[in-house]
Specification:
Blueprint: H1 3-31, E1 33-38, H2 46-50, H3 53-58, E2 61-66, H4 70-79, E3 84-88, H5 89-97, E4 102-110, E5 115-120, E6 135-138, H6 143-154, E7 163-166, H7 169-178, E8 183-187, H8 190-195, E9 198-203, H9 204-209, E10 215-221, H10 222-227, H11 229-248, H12 258-267, H13 271-279, H14 286-290, H15 302-316, H16 334-338
Parallel strand pairs: 1-2, 1-3, 6-7, 6-8
Antiparallel strand pairs: 3-10, 4-10, 5-8, 5-9
Helix pairs in contact: 5-15, 12-13
Length: 341
């Protein structure tokens, strides 16, 4: 082989090798894509959606998509369109009971005063004893829907005594303002809207104390969680950072703060509205979340117990057909254990 042929062969081999390396790099980049679903809840970590820190910290190309409910998010996870999402424990229990393989890896909040039953001025409702014969609403298969039904049951009433409409939050606000509804169990921004012409009758925290606790969480499709543990750890690390800032520096989260303005830009509404919503959250520190009281502990996991109890209630209501023997497989403390605080 003369020198020209030798150089040509070497060049051809180099091009082939480079093309292969390029294809490998492109494939690796393609593998590091994820669709993350969020809702309109004001959370400290939502600022990291707005400013791109989740993507920067993880090295993944993240497509954040806004949804109106946990039920919609679970449908998207089931179809494969979404890999990670922010949901409430009631739609979570329903999805798990129907066989969807998902895992909660971070608890965003637990039952607090950020969700509540608001009754309309002029509805004739002054106390819980006045709910009989009234028209109430909550988002379908949401934690609010679950707690509203649980509240009615705890009062010795049934859906024959109280009309309960399962409708999206925008429809609840519209019906409430028209006078078609006497009350709505909602979260922000609907909570703020209903308060303009009503009053809080009972909060999520108070219903939890009556025996129906709830939580909201970041969940991941189990297959994605198993193959992308570093992403979940980096995600949890970013959430820890913002939750830590919120706990230690309240001034940085006030109505005039850049953080509140970022939330308004991402979620809509006004900065002061989001600052007020944040102050109503009931947050858990990472170590408490990872304990057996919540995500850790396997069969002893408190979060798994809430899912099972919620599933049993949903079955009694005819919302699901089966309650699984255990929900421990649907929660994990692995991401929190490997995250930085």
């Amino acid at each position: 082989m003369n020198m020209k042929r030798l150089l040509a062969a070497a060049f051809t081999g180099f091009v082939a090798l480079s093309a292969g390396a390029g294809a490998g790099a492109a494939a690796a980049a393609a593998d590091k894509k994820v669709v993350v679903a969020y809702q309109t809840d004001a959370l400290p970590s939502s600022v990291a959606i707005a400013n791109g820190e989740f993507a920067e910290a993880s090295g993944y190309d993240i497509d954040f998509r806004k949804f109106n409910s946990g039920a919609e998010i679970f449908a998207a996870i089931a179809s494969g369109d979404v890999q990670v999402g922010y949901v409430g424990s009631s739609p979570f229990a329903a999805a798990a009971s129907r066989g969807l393989a998902v895992k909660a890896f971070y608890l965003s909040s637990i039952s607090g005063i950020d969700e509540a039953l608001v009754v309309r001025n002029g509805s004739g409702i002054g106390s819980l004893a006045d709910l009989k014969g009234k028209k109430l609403a909550a988002a379908p298969v949401s934690t609010d829907h679950y707690q509203l039904l649980a509240l009615i049951k705890s009062l010795g009433l049934s859906e024959k005594d109280v009309q309960v409409f399962a409708i999206p939050q925008p429809d609840i606000v519209a019906g409430f303002n028209r006078g078609d509804l006497d009350g709505g169990f909602v979260w922000d921004p609907a909570l703020t809207e209903l308060k303009k012409n009503g009053k809080v009758l009972v909060t999520s925290k108070e219903v939890a104390e009556k025996g129906a606790p709830t939580f909201s969480a970041w969940v991941a499709a189990s297959k994605f969680a198993d193959t992308n543990p570093d992403f979940l750890k980096s995600f949890a690390t970013v959430v820890n950072k913002y939750y830590g800032s919120f706990a230690k520096d309240k001034a940085a989260w006030g109505p005039e703060s850049d953080n509140a303005k970022q939330l308004a830009k991402l979620l809509g509404g006004k900065p002061e509205q989001h600052a007020a919503a944040l102050s109503n959250l009931n947050l858990l520190t990472p170590d408490v979340q990872a304990s057996s009281d919540w995500l850790g502990g396997g069969e002893k996991s408190g979060a798994a117990k809430i899912l099972k109890d919620t599933a049993q209630f949903l079955k009694d209501q005819g919302k699901v057909s089966e309650v699984l023997p255990s929900y421990a497989a649907f929660v994990t403390a692995d991401a929190l254990s490997g995250a930085s605080n």
